Amino acid sequence: MTTQSSNHNLFAALRAAFPADLNAVAVETDNGLTYTWHDLERSTAMVANLLQSLDLAPGARVAVQVEKSVEAMVLYLATLRAGYVFLPLNTAYQSAEIEYFIGNAEPAVVVCSPSNFGWVSKIAFKAGTNSVFTLGDDRTGSLLDRAAHHSDQHTCATSSADDLAAILYTSGTTGRSKGAMLSHSNMLSNALVLKDYWGWRTAEQGGDVLIHALPIFHVHGLFVALHGALINGSKIIWMAKFDPKFAIAKMAEATVFMGVPTLYVRMLAEPGLTQEAVRHMRLFIAGSAPLLLETFTEWQTRTGHTILERYGMSETAMLTSNPYAADARYGGQSERRGGTVGFPLPGVTLRVQDDEGQVLATGEIGGIQVKGPNIFKGYWRMPEKTAEEFTADGFFKTGDVGKVDERGYVTIVGRSKDLIISGGYNVYPAEIEGYINDMPGVNESALVGVPHPDFGEVGVAVVIAKPGASLASEQIIADLKSKLANFKIPKHCFVVAELPRNTMGKVQKNLLREQYKGLFKA
Ligand code: MLC
Ligand code: AMP
Fold it and tell me: Which of 51, 266, 285, 513 is geometrically suited to a Cys-Cys bond with 258, CB 3.0 to 4.6 A?
């Protein structure tokens, strides 16, 4: 039996890191609100009590599709606190996508935006969900109304290390999305390693202030950024939506910024980004997609700061990072090298293998495989899929292709998984092609990723009509827009006579990528 002293609940660890002065400001929002640590303590207690009053089964999922707000963060923390499993959903997902996630995860509780209650509740009740609440981004909705009737005292649930804390859906090259199951210890171990590796400053050292600019339904904003600040008891400057001017203005009061490369590209376009504007900042961190060397260099020239790039994924949280300070494991190297994702984090073992399962030597390119306390527990209700993604000796196959150089730096050179990363969001060509292929008059389609000055990479669809059918690319795009999240919509669609194929008849996507690579040249 787990005792209180061995409670592995992630919230318990985050709560223990709150500063002694609970009346200090924990979060300051872009619309002028402030929340103290005491506010977070009380509000998470009330929502946790509400969830526990619903008599949910152990391991019950709480699925959430709401706009970014501090109350949405409170809901996440309260779900951990009550011992249930948090299931965040991108706000861009539309009904077919939500229907799949809810049908697959069978959440006991669904929380949605008030404006979506009509269609989301219909889907949820059909899937057997008992409770559907609403939560607006302006502190409205039935969740808070109901929570207001509950006590603001709550004893954190006791969780074992392997108990699930969250399920993050991530698409596969083939088939439907898979729910990556992350435990309390997966996330806590990662948060503690990053706190140390990125040199988060204690209050005695002057403390840190994080600008939180990312959505809170993916690893980067929900875990890396949020846990990073909370496990250090650091104040958060909260942006409901990223705005480069606001972010730059707030740097005078902040010390840490985390973003996907697109955020850095957008800030570089602002004349207000100067050495003076960033003089208070300690650390800029980038990840979720490749940071172009030119962005890395331009940032250095403009601000005098070297961006620290790191690499991770939904299944693993963070895996590698460029050093913040001298890394004794790698001969005291402290250089943040552009174009690399740095060293495996302490506790993470990383190797590169070829297709035959041979571990490759330094500098050779192959599939990146990883092991460590942060690696997930498997895909929700997909034991075969889980088994396929692990090697016999327990390494997780990331699907990323890369190499490790003689100094120990890891570089990602590509992906074996057919995936487009657009502005930090993943787009799986197979999913979009499936939708296009189902349209009347379509014979076949291919979606490829091409360079884009803002989003890094975007999808371009190439479509072939059935004999005698006539297709309009605008219609294809409009049709997709009515069914899919906006970031998945191809930025261009071409209707062509044929697709390039190899001798086996397989579509040669590399030739299409080459053909359309200049489409969005800046
Ligand atoms: C928005 N659009 C996108 C897009 N975001 N298209 C492609 N890719 C994207 N990422 C669409 C909009 O729907 C709109 O289409 C048009 O592009 C212009 O939109 P915008 O107003 O410029 O977009 P904006 O709302 O400002 O959003 C851009 C963004 C956002 C970069 C701020 O995409 C974002 O927050 N990205 C971060 C994603 C993230 O957090 N990833 C972490 C994953 S975790 P239209 O047709 O309506 O005009 C992970 C693991 C790890 O990967 O290692 O961290
Ligand atoms: P997700 O499944 O959304 O968590 O996306 C994870 C994927 O994002 C990884 O498998 C990588 O392909 C990619 N990724 C994350 N960080 C980086 C990075 N710094 N450079 C290149 N790719 C990255």
Answer: 285
- Residue 374 Cβ < 6 Å to ligand 1: no
Structure tokens at 226: 């949020």
pLDDT score recorded for residue 417:
84
DSSP symbols for 318-375: EEEE--SS-BGGGTTB----TT--BEEPTT-EEEEE-TTSPBPPTT--EEEEEESTTS
Name the fold adopted by 419-516.
Answer: GMP Synthetase; Chain A, domain 3 (3.30.300)
Question: Residue 175: is its pLDDT beyond 70?
Answer: no
Beta bridge partners of 313: 317
- The verdict on the CB of residue 218 being under 6 Å from ligand 1 is yes
CB-ligand 2 contact for 213 (6 Å cutoff): no
**Is residue 169 in contact with ligand 1, taking CB distance under 6 Å?**
no
Neighbours of 402 (CB within 10 A): 21
Both tokens assigned to 217: 């339904």
Give me ligand 2 centre to Cα 311, in Å: 6
- State the Cα–Cα distance between residues 512 and 165, nearest whole angstrom: 41
Instruction: Report the relative pairing of strands 131-134 and 109-112 from DSSP bridges.
Output: parallel
- β partners of residue 494: 462
Determine the 3-state secondary structure of 186 from DSSP. Answer: helix
Q: What is the mean pLDDT of residues 130-142?
A: 98
Q: Domain map of the chain by residue range?
A: 4-18+35-159, 419-516
Cα of 181 to ligand 1 centre, how many Å?
A: 24
- Pocket-testing residue among 169, 296, 311, ligand 2, by greatest number of atoms within 8 A of Cβ: 311
Sorted by sequence, the CB contacts under 8 Å of residue 282 that are 6+ apart come out as 199, 201, 208, 255, 256
Is CATH 1.10.10.10 what the domain over 4-18+35-159 is classified as, yes or no? no
Flag whether pLDDT at 366 surpasses 80.
yes
Residues 6 or more apart in contact with residue 298 via CB below 8 angstroms = 268
pLDDT in tens, 313-350: 999 999 999 999 999 999 999 999 999 999 999 999 99
Q: Which residues contact 477 (CB under 8 A, 6 or more apart)?
A: 489, 490, 493
Query: Measured in angstroms, how far is the CA atom of residue 289 from the centroid of ligand 2?
Result: 5
> Would you say the pTM of this structure is higher than 0.90?
yes
Mutation to probe ligand 2, out of 337, 400, 418 (largest number of atoms < 8 A from CB) = 400
131 Cβ inside 6 Å of ligand 1: no
Q: What does pLDDT average to over the chain?
A: 96
